[in-house]
Amino acid sequence: MSTPAGLKNPGAAVRGVGAAALVVEGVVLLLALLPLAKLGHGDNTAAIWLCVALAVVSFALCGLLRHAWAWYAGLAVQVALLAGGVLHWSLVALGALFGLTWLYVLYVRRSVYANKPD
C-alpha cells in the first residue's frame, strides 16, 4: 500500500516543513534586529529582546516537532509576535506573515496525517 503523495515517511516530511518554517522565521527575526535598532523611532529595546527571544524559541522548537505540543507552541510564537505589535508596528506585519505561514503548515500537517494509512 502506498503512502500519501508517495511519501515514504509522512511524519518526517511534515516535521521538515514545520522546521523549515521555524528556521526561516528565526532568521528573519534576527535580521529584523538591525532595522529595529537603527531605524526605529524611540526606544525599541523591548521589541529587540522580544525578537531575540522568539528567534531562540523558534530554533529550539525545530527539534521538538516530534511532540504534538510543539506544534501548538509554534502557534503561540506567532501569537506572541502579533502581540509584540504594541512594541513596534513591524512586529504585527511579521506576525501576520508568519502566522499565515504557520496556519498553512498546520493545514498541511492535518491533511497529511488525515491520509496516513493505518
Strand content: under 5%
Q: Low-confidence parts, pLDDT < 50 over ≥5 residues? A: none
Whole-number average pLDDT?
A: 90
How large is the count of helical segments? 5
Count of distinct strands = 0
| SS-derived structural category | mainly alpha
Order of helices and strands: HHHHH
User: What distance lies between the first and last C-alpha atoms, to the nearest angstrom?
Assistant: 10 Å
Largest sheet: none
Keywords: Membrane, Transmembrane, Transmembrane helix
Protein name: DUF4233 domain-containing protein
Pfam families: DUF4233 (PF14017)
Transmembrane segments: 12-34, 46-66, 86-107
Short structural summary:
The chain has 118 residues and is mainly alpha-helical.
List descriptors.
118 residues; 0% strand; mainly alpha
Fold and architecture overview:
The protein has 118 residues and is mainly alpha-helical. It has one domain (9-112). It has helices at residues 10-31, 33-39, 45-62, 68-83, 89-114. The protein has five helices and no strands. It is elongated and about 55 Å long. It starts with 9 loop residues before the first helix and ends with a helix.
Summarize the SSE layout with pairings.
Elements lengths: L9 H22 L1 H7 L5 H18 L5 H16 L5 H26 L4
